[in-house]
Specification:
The protein is mainly α. It has 4 helices and no strands.
Length: 93
């Protein structure tokens, strides 16, 4: 639930900043891209903080080395967040 709230709140914030004239956040798909980046950073941080233990426990026993899998998915979420920075601008063809 927290990631959804962060996504919505950051989108509203970035959209308002974009409406005020900040170019990186206009049009609204650009604001949404930045909001997704914030949400991915939040969810990735869970893989490396004290909530990591809970994530490791959620991995099914059929998968080997759950700690490594949690670490890998955390790095993949970070990569996804950074990848959003390298997309072409929302208003380009």
């Amino acid at each position: 639930m927290v990631p959804l709230i962060v996504l919505i709140a950051s989108f509203v914030l970035f959209a308002l900043v974009g409406a005020a004239g900040a170019h990186p956040f206009t049009p609204w798909p650009a604001a949404l891209r930045w909001a997704l980046l914030v949400m991915f950073l939040l969810t990735a941080s869970a893989h490396f903080t004290k909530t990591r233990v809970d994530l490791v426990r959620m991995v099914p026993r059929a998968f080997p080395n759950p700690g490594l899998l949690v670490t890998l998915t955390g790095f993949l979420e970070l990569a996804g967040a950074l990848g959003l920075l390298f997309l072409p601008p929302a208003n380009s063809p």
